[in-house]
Amino acid sequence: MQALDAALSSPKSPALDTQALADCMEACAACELACLACADACLDEPDFVSLRRCIRLDLDCADVCAATARLLSRRLDGDAKLLRSMVEACARACATCGAECHQHAEHHEHCRVCAEACRLCAERCGRVLRDLPDTYGETHPPVSGHG
Amino acid sequence: MQALDAALSSPKSPALDTQALADCMEACAACELACLACADACLDEPDFVSLRRCIRLDLDCADVCAATARLLSRRLDGDAKLLRSMVEACARACATCGAECHQHAEHHEHCRVCAEACRLCAERCGRVLRDLPDTYGETHPPVSGHG
Amino acid sequence: MQALDAALSSPKSPALDTQALADCMEACAACELACLACADACLDEPDFVSLRRCIRLDLDCADVCAATARLLSRRLDGDAKLLRSMVEACARACATCGAECHQHAEHHEHCRVCAEACRLCAERCGRVLRDLPDTYGETHPPVSGHG
Amino acid sequence: MQALDAALSSPKSPALDTQALADCMEACAACELACLACADACLDEPDFVSLRRCIRLDLDCADVCAATARLLSRRLDGDAKLLRSMVEACARACATCGAECHQHAEHHEHCRVCAEACRLCAERCGRVLRDLPDTYGETHPPVSGHG
Asked: What is the predicted ipTM?
């Protein structure tokens, strides 16, 4: 994905595994769209009533993935604890949504595809969380000056 | 805000303080736009170099606020632990961004306004977090059926 | 809304009716959330099948409103023709979604509220479109230098 | 991209070139992130002052691309004229942003990458616009019932 190259070509790079961050950003973007497409397709299914929770989790997951991808694109100078919180929330959203979609995967191809996108995104979020040192961002506390 | 009335008029309501959720949603939307306007205004300031971190935190905070407001609009059947994670992330984003903006508030009215929007949003996120019972959503774990 | 004050306090102001822009931005944000809340509430209605188109138009309208509000927050130096295109798209999204919701307004309070939010947003978009001079932005064509 | 498969596996398909829509959705998502990464990288460049317009156009383009991708994920029953408006706005955003980035492409790799993402996205938007029949969506005017 080209955003990766753009991120890699920025003047300042964090002491992080850039590839892991770029992979995660890409998976978030793909998961967002898979969730939205799944939600839309669910609306037309005959067993719609049993898919209501799936639709809601799809929409939630899409929004969290979208925001997470955007934060990952700006990783250079931000608040690493916020990044960690968001990536954790994203991993959770993907796990919950993916589990729900998995339950419908046999009957609906869009749920199967979405479950797989969620699985991949959760996995890549996990890798970022392992890579993010606990102390990353510690140099950027909102210090002094406003007591 | 009209979204509040729409949320209140939905057929099923959670066992939560609906007003607190609606207030939080409204504060998230207002904070998102205050952050974006602040980031944009910072770009034209003569002391831009000292505002770079402010711009990045503004943009991060705007994205987290936007996603949080969207999740709050869908609170009926979702994953409450995800909602909690997002509201926590949002409170953190607002605290960090607000603290940064506060440092520039004397010199830049847009930072002062943004700091105040962040403060209000963080406060309302905090109220939602206090109200959200730990067990809320416990009936919706991604259980069995896909081992 | 505080974003208004932030926008007004930016160092450079366009030759536009700032109040009209701020009103439009606020209406976009409110309409986005009313649409999302309406879509979510529709999912639980017994006559869900007749609300499928309403849900899709709600979700589309929410996304267009969200993007339009964000562009309005950055109005100082952008591409005014793009702003015009987006505000036109937003007015159209609100008109279509509002008309659909209006048809269900008697039976569903969330549709009535959403229709009203759409009407207000479309009206404010219309005012911005009338105010935006055709020549606004003409000084920013992507000219020369890359033939 | 997996969203493509999800879209293709939905129960109802429009009389459109599904592949063109999926390609466009994917390009929008990639362009959004390339724009955000470029804006972020620009903030750290020594010649920042000459990149202010680039940053704003990047942020605008990212928001329009994001909304367009979301609409494309829900193409089954929506308002085709709205889809057309958004894809046109997206093509315009990409053309303007791409032209600006092109001017900085020699000096900044992130601008070169972003210009290329914009070019591809504009091209794919153009293909969707050629494919969208003028009459598509004509069956969904917000007719009667609310005079």
From this structure: 0.84
